[in-house]
Amino acid sequence: MSDTILVINAGSSSIKFHLFEVGPGDTLTARLGGQVEGIGSSHPRLRARDAAGQTMIERDIAPSHAADVPNAQEVVGMWLSGHLSGVPMAVGHRVVHGGPDLSEPVLIDDAVLAKLESYTSLAPLHQPNNLAPIRVIRERRPGIAQVACFDTAFHRSHDALADHYALPERFYQEGVRRYGFHGLSYEYLVQRLTQTLPEVVPGRIVAAHLGNGVSACAIRAGKSVDSTMGFTALEGLPMGTRPGRLDPGIVLWMMNQGMTHDEIEHLLYHDCGLKGLSGIGNDVRELLASDDPRARLALDYFAWRVAEGIAGLGCAMGGIDTLVFTAGIGENAAAVRAAICARLAWLGIALDDARNAQHGPRISTADSRIGVYVVRTNEELIIAQHTLDRVRGR
Ligand code: AMP
């Protein structure tokens, strides 16, 4: 019977789970992945596929069994126990916020859990959902080691300048800092580039994580030096349903119009970005297929502001040697990559259209001043690796 590591990524309406087998030499092999989606809705569903992509289960679950994240975690636990021989040796969790201090994954004990709970005010929509499965597993299976891996940790290498807003210092002391997110994705990219393109890693890389959440990161010598995301996952580039850069005066205006905190929060997290601009939706496939001028407007806005963000990160490093696209849009939407790179032609980026259409890995021409690549991210694998490392005491 081989050891396994379970990886959990719990959001407000879904719990994603991935199981890795620990092989000789601590190699990790993905065995299955799935999710409970529609938590809290009238149509929650459980889906899982094996490593070959074959469906293992796909069915509705009773809304009362997935009313909230702890409920849904029980569904995941029950289904997994029927498909596992033995319990996992450890569970790794994606936790959005490691606060100002936690720059590495940590084994969870009471003190760590209390500390992570204290960061809830920094990420009120995400942190409670991330921590809920940790509590359920601690209660039901206290013997299983659990490890928290943070989206903020990779960015703790930022210097004070990158970490600050132009606010009075007391806000910084109270935790209002530019934390940055998507760190697990960027960490994986650095690891992958070290294996496949080691010559680019010592240089100046901008990595663009273009998924439903969108950010870009300036990486010099393998370390994050700046990110377009800051205090929350709202700042920076336009996203599927979040606006990115916004004049804070707009929020004040909304308050003056009588919108409540919760209404503004819902708007900013769920109804803006590509969805808000297009009035159609947040899925880039749908927008690319549409001939509605609003879909065009949304995609053009996206390309412009992402290009602007990428160029801006060059200021953190005195230039850009390598640009890497990743995540759902970055890996799959050749037209969006082309539109972004067209706006960066003045930096010396020249795209190879045929390579771009094939999604890389290299999508720039041989004489492009900046090498442009597509690299598939794998946040689950990096969480599994960290979890195994912590359990092994590494
Ligand atoms: P992620 O958050 O990384 O899962 O990315 C999700 C987003 O990627 C979706 O909302 C789509 O907008 C986009 N996406 C996924 N697949 C494709 C595709 N084949 N072409 C264009 N966009 C895609």
UniProtKB/TrEMBL annotation:
Major enzyme class: transferase
Where does the entry annotate site (Transition state stabilizer)? H182, R242
Q: Where in the cell is it found?
A: Cytoplasm
**Metal-binding: present as a keyword of the record?**
yes
Q: How is the cofactor bound?
A: Mg(2+). Can also accept Mn(2+).
Pfam families associated with the record? Acetate_kinase
User: Mind listing the UniProt keywords for this protein, alphabetically?
Assistant: ATP-binding, Cytoplasm, Kinase, Magnesium, Metal-binding, Nucleotide-binding, Transferase
Quick one: which pathway?
Answer: Metabolic intermediate biosynthesis; acetyl-CoA biosynthesis; acetyl-CoA from acetate: step 1/2
Task: Write down the Gene3D superfamilies for this protein, in alphabetical order.
Answer: 3.30.420.40
- Highest rank taxon of the organism: Bacteria
Q: Which cofactor does it need?
A: Mg(2+); Mn(2+)
Say where the protein is mainly found.
cytoplasm
The UniProt record gives the binding positions of ATP as K16, H209, L210, G211, N212, G213, D283, V284, R285, G328, I329, G330, E331, N332
Quaternary structure annotation from Swiss-Prot or TrEMBL? Homodimer.
What name is this protein filed under? Answer: Acetate kinase
Q: What is the lineage of its organism?
A: Bacteria, Pseudomonadati, Pseudomonadota, Betaproteobacteria, Burkholderiales
- Which gene name does the record give? ackA
